[in-house]
Design goal:
- The chain is mostly helical and 326 residues long.
- The protein has helices spanning 9-16, 23-32, 35-41, 50-59, 65-84, 100-105, 116-124, 129-139, 148-151, 182-193, 235-249, 256-275, 280-289, 305-309, 314-321; strands at residues 158-159, 164-169, 173-179, 196-198, 210-212, 295-297, 300-302.
- Among the domains are: 9-105, DNA polymerase, domain 1; 146-245, no CATH class.
- The strands form 3 sheets. Strands 1-2-3 form a 3-stranded antiparallel β-sheet. Strands 4-5 form a two-stranded antiparallel sheet.
- A hairpin with a 3-residue loop joins strand 2 and strand 3.
């Protein structure tokens, strides 16, 4: 979504003067999300009916409940302020007729990006550690050409004490000392220990609802009716497992690429909280973690940070994490 500006800006700025500190920027951002609907109906948000408020929330194209709840709360506060200051000749705030169940129904059906909490929430409902680790590795920057960094990962490639991985990409070679989180380490241990795979996330009613996992030194292993198979799994295993997860949760756009992008956004949020900025230096750190390749510009090798800014931007960060990035 592209944020344009505040409708009836002078009024909104008067309201924003009542909001303290950094919260003011969050409120301003939320009010901007009503601009398109205000412009279409030709009146300020505080004159909206409950149906027009619903339209504004739907048009804002939120993808998480936390983000739509934040925007709704700001809308409600703004209308309360307008009533209190005599801008509205009524003491009834129409926003109060909208409950949480309705808010959830206004969420965008085209869910593309996912917050860290959403990934963790899915993992809690997944029965196979072998599936959970795929999401976690992608989210933390392990992927490679044809998913080869994941497929090539063995127990010997893990420095358990320092939480570092040595990764092998079939096309681009090795990356050493790639640091991952403690949850990632725990999931790798669980994936190694898993011996049987439950099909369709434990919901299969077919002839083989559960299959043994092959025995080898790789972290990610195939499920098979054969007793032994020492070979590496292929990329289609990852495609199939992510597709099954997406179908189970009803997320049409849960793909390896979108999980990876979501992880980049999460890292951007962490860096912003540590450094209070999100500039070329921070974007380059993300590029390194996720194994992106440099391009040559005027004789210099640089990361194409403009491509990262297409999705690592204030809109997506606000939508997923309710954090305002200047």
């Amino acid at each position: 979504m592209v944020i344009k500006k505040l409708y009836n800006e002078s009024e909104k700025m008067e309201f924003l003067k009542t909001i303290a500190g950094k919260t003011r920027n969050v409120y301003k951002y939320a009010l901007c999300r009503g601009f398109d609907t205000e412009e279409v109906v030709g009146k300020d948000l505080y004159h909206f009916t409950s149906e027009e408020i619903k339209d504004a929330l739907i048009n804002a194209d939120h993808s998480t409940f936390n983000s739509i709840k934040l925007t709704f709360n700001v809308f409600e506060s703004y209308i309360d302020w307008a009533i209190k200051t005599g801008r509205v000749h009524s003491n009834i705030n129409p926003a109060r007729s909208i409950d949480n169940a309705e808010l959830r129904s206004y969420l965008s059906k085209k869910k593309i990006l996912f917050s860290k909490c959403e990934i963790a929430g899915m993992q809690k409902k997944m029965v196979n550690a072998q599936d959970k680790i795929i999401l976690q590795l992608l989210f933390e920057g392990v992927n490679g050409h044809g998913h080869s960094e994941i497929l090539n990962l063995t127990q010997a490639d893990i420095d358990w004490d320092n939480r570092e991985l040595n990764l092998k990409d079939d096309k681009y070679g090795e990356r050493s000392n790639v640091r991952v989180s403690e949850p990632c380490i725990r999931l790798m241990k669980a994936a190694i220990e898993q011996t049987k795979y439950q099909n369709k996330n434990g919901t299969s009613i077919g002839n083989n609802p559960e299959l043994p996992l092959v025995k080898n030194h790789y972290i990610l292993r195939s499920a098979t009716t054969r007793v032994q198979n020492y070979g590496r799994a292929d990329k289609h295993l990852i495609y199939r497992r992510i597709s099954t997860i997406a179908q189970f949760f009803g997320y049409q756009y849960l793909t390896a690429k979108n999980i990876e992008k979501s992880g980049m956004i999460s890292m951007a949020v962490d860096l912003y909280s540590q450094r209070n900025k999100l500039e070329a230096e921070e974007l380059s750190m993300i590029a390194v973690q996720f194994g992106l390749k440099k391009i040559v510009v005027n004789g210099f090798e640089l990361f194409n940070t403009s491509l990262l800014r297409d999705f690592i931007n204030p809109d997506t960060i606000m939508d997923l994490y309710n954090i305002h990035i200047d």
